[in-house]
Amino acid sequence: MDYQSLLNKNSSRRALIVSGAVGGMATALGLPMIAQKAEARTTTSGRNDAKVLNHALYYEHQAIWAYGAAAGKLTSSEVGKTVLALALRNQADHKNHRDALAATITSLGGTPVKAQSSYDLSSYIKKGEGNLDSDVNIAKLALALETDAAIAYSQEIAKLKTPKLITIGASIGSTETAHAAAIRATFKALGVNVEIVPAPFLSIENREAWVLKV
Q: DSSP string spanning 27-80?
């Protein structure tokens, strides 16, 4: 695929419009009142749910760090600016998720997991699912991370005991899927021939349909 041609396209405005529409949907799913949904503090269900939500919080910390680490490596090209705008939008959602999850874990009597100083992304790079060496590959790495975050949420929410928290977890998981779709929409707007939503489901079984190889 000739990625140099992407740099010559004057389509960043169109990319931002498309990604913004999907990203806006993701932001609309933000749940700042999540902490008020907790119904148990010291019960067995409450302790279980705090543990499950801490697993989800780990992925939010990872995503926030990854977007921050990648932002400084993007170029000032039209593609780089487009990827940066989408990255900052997605990162803002992840920060809202982080704060909401941490508040809920605390309300359940748990201790929110702390963010690490850095996260190992080498497994993605080794599999050719992105890199930090170009604007295009950074976008692909973000796509792989968002795809796995969506899958992780679908797996974790099944372990929750509190009905309201299950609904909230599903809503956040759908936001992660929207992030993945927004990244794919940006690729399409930049001229790459990909489907924005490549499969009717996002799961371990069809993960390969969602990620883009280097």
A: HHT--TTGGGG---SSSHHHHHHHHHHHHHHHHHHHHHHHHHHHHTT--SSHHH
With vertex at residue 202, the alpha carbon angle to CA 15 and CA 121, rounded to the nearest 5 degrees, is 75
Residue recorded with tokens 């010291």: 42
Averaged pLDDT, 64-73: 94
Q: What is the identity of the amino acid at 49? A: D
145: domain CATH number is 1.20.1260.10
Q: CA–CA separation, 109 vs 111, rounded Å?
A: 7
Q: Which domain holds residue 93?
A: 4-210
What are the tens digits of pLDDT across the range 142-158?
999 999 999 999 999 99
- Token pair listed for 85: 């705008």
Place of tokens 């295009």: 136
Please provide the distance, in angstroms rounded to a whole number, between the alpha carbons at the two ends of the chain.
10
Q: Which pair of structure tokens corresponds to residue 72?
A: 């400084």
The overall pTM is greater than 0.85: no
- The string of pLDDT tens digits covering residues 95-116 is 999 999 999 999 999 999 999 9
How many domains does the structure of the chain reveal?
1
Give the model's confidence band at 42: pLDDT under 50 very low, under 70 low, under 90 confident, else very high: low
Q: Which amino acid is at 96?
A: N
